[in-house]
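Q: Is it fine to ask for two folds in a single conversation?
A: Yes, each is treated on its own. Send the first.
Q: Here.
A: Result:
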Amino acid sequence: MLQLLEPRTDVPAKEDWSTRLAFADVLISTRHSVETIIVTGTFVATFFLPGSPGNTAARIVLGVLMVMSLGGFLPNRHLRRAVRLGVFDEPWRRVAAAVAEKREDDPRDRLLADGLVLVGSLGDLPDRVAERQEVFVLGPDGDGLVLLRAAGSTSMYVAAPVDESGHRAAERVERVLGRPADERELEDGVDMMRVLRHLFWGLPVLMVVVAGVLLALSVSPPAPAGLIAVAVLVPQLFFLPTAIELFLHNDVNARAVNGSDEWTPVPVRLFAWQRGHHVAGIAELPGGPALVRFPRPNSDLVANIAGTGVMWVAGTYRGRLAVGLPGAGALMTAVVRPVAASDPMASWRRIGQVDFSALPR
């Protein structure tokens, strides 16, 4: 069976490094909270400030930003509540599980685990459970909800035990490694990125236009709310190079996968992560040891490399490696460089750098 990342079951979940790595996406950052307060307060203030073109434009822009900022508190709210309730003080439990056959009148996912029927919107977790016939469980919390994780992923899903019977377990899936391009999960992931890739650079360009127009309207006559809105938008403009890079990486990954005949496991030893440095390591490539850096690292893929010591290459294109995981839809680009002791980032790459400090040293 394919070796995958698994959470530790011998320590409290909050001490498991892969669970702490997931907290980087689950917890609300101080910056986001402060930005939400500023945007909401300034939006309200526009109704009391003297009328002007800049103030009117600021009200529209700030209204959109406020909805987006407040919307950022909705995802993962159940996980943040679990943190507050101390659910992560207990260790993960490995439980034998199967996927229940889907009901035509109910699109929710169901797992049959430990004599229980667990119901929820579980993303791609059932695919991995169907293959490995196990799931990792945490909880229940005060409301009876449990958290679920599958091998190979740091993502956590909320499910509710229900009193139902008569469910049949779906057949176990036996995974055979073949052409990466033939995997449904990877094909779906590539197709989705192909559809969304124009948003990567389209949204930052739109931000530049909106900030420019808003600044022009807010300078004369002076509109303080408009200037504050521009100040909130300015940090987003620095992500334009990142958006362009993601656009290019997605094209490289798609071409690499389409030209590949097989998955290739490559041993990798990651460096201890340092802020301001790339996620990087030494890979034992066919031509000898080389440094591989991940300019835009995917948390799940990096966690699997750290946990198993293996990087799965889905293909190569123009010297760049498309790195993924059999049975998963995510891809990231690896760039090969001569062996070095560290790999510092360019200054512009450090803006909004993802925190990988939880990786084992």
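Q: Second one now.
A: Result:
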Amino acid sequence: MINKYKGSYVSYVLMFTFYFFALGIFSSIMSIYLSGIGKSASEISFIVSSVGIFSVLTQPFVGYLIDKTQKPKLVSAITLLLAGVTGVVFIFFHNNVLLFILNGFTLAFINSVSPINEKLATNSRFRYGIIRMWGAIGFAIASQIAGLVYDHISPSFNFVLFFVAIIISIIGYYGTTQIEVDINNSSQSLSFKEVNSALLKNKRYFLFLLLTFIFTGMTGVNNTFLPLLITEKGGSVSIVGTIIFFATLVEIPIILLSHLFLDRVSGRVLLIISFVVILLQFSAYSLISSLNIIIVSTVLFKALATMLFIMITLKIVINIVESSYINSALAIAATGKALGGLVFQLVGGKIVVMYDIETLYFFFTFISLLGIIISFMMKIEGNSKNLFNGQNSD
């Protein structure tokens, strides 16, 4: 029975569903949870910004450990377990500094294994889309449950569910197919500093890191302040969960159809599309006060943009980075995401305190336009092999 479980579709379903369920249950209404225990907008920004600081240390190191040990599943499972412990401890403290530390460690650990999850999906014998869709389903369900638990049971109980989901996700890791090891992996003989130095000398990769910094910085802040914008316009916490639930479901058709366009469309065009999507989203938030319009914009654009960027990151990094550095490159890209979150959280918090949330999104609209301009400058020769088609025709 154990042999049948290894490499099975069920193992991937468990891993992706409960990994993203854990992420969703912890993060989807974090700003509302913190507001509910008496934290101001500036305090919320301070606590949430911790992810960037801690990720600068954890994500490149986790990527380096995976390249060095060639044991991605073991390293990822240990990292996830650490996230589960720090996440459940979160409910016992209200001190800003302790919440800052615990939030930072928890999400930094979770985000550190995200690139490996994506590689496990593309490395399996199943098509990427029919595996990855379970992540969208898990996050969607978590967003809905988080709001209902918050309103009808206890806000703290969400963190208990988070820990349970982490454990189930680790069980899923056990059955997935190991990522193939490159026996000529030159990064195994290099130090942590030498690997990072080699990557940052890659001009195309460096430019992509800048785009990652901008894109994920803004979308990270959006995750923090969008629930507050919706409740400010008259929506309840449960409605926030329902909106995010339907917004996440929009990812599923994109994921399922990924093999039809991601291997064929250039990375530059995909980057431009991603920035156009968030440009439309943020301009709607900044210029239109109707709650219904905000809901429609969120459902259509929020998860679509972030999901596209996750898949684009995998495609672009594999195209522009040597194969021996891919895990480290994906980890550094995740660090760029975290740094973007840190900087934009701090700036965004100040804008909201000085002005309002609509002004924050007006600022993001112009930054999105800048991202489109930079995307036109990207030169990515060729397309990766059938990355999203699966190794077999399952």
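Q: Anything structural to flag on that second result?
A: Two points. The mean pLDDT is 80. The chain has 19 helices and no strands.
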